[in-house]
Amino acid sequence: MKFWPENITYTGKKLKKTCYPLYRDIYDQQQKSRKHARKCKLTLIPDEATSLKDSHWEAQTRYREANCEKLRQAAVQYRLHKKCCTEQAADEAEYQRIMGMDME
Questions:
Q1: How would DSSP label each residue in 6-53?
Q2: pLDDT tens-digit readout, 74-93
Q3: Which of 9, 10, 20, 63 is least buried, going by the fewest C-beta atoms within 10 A?
């Protein structure tokens, strides 16, 4: 399914007229799937619900075990990026403070 027209060269009303139905269809499908999921959860027997939760938990555990190194590296990268961003913001603030000083 094509969500966005190729090579759009127009704007305004024509763009809205062309692209809004695509977004509306996606939104409608999301609403339908949410409604279906809620309905399925309500009709579950309590034993089925607990078995589904347990199987989901076991699947998560298997994924974490299989991708332990990948997840660890992603966590390290996230922390480094966050630290770098905060340091960069502090450096920028310091630079602005120094540039604002009178050099006499």
A1: SS----THHHHHHHHHHHHHHHHHHHHHHHHHHHHHHTS-HHHHHHHH
A2: 999 999 999 999 999 899 98
A3: 9
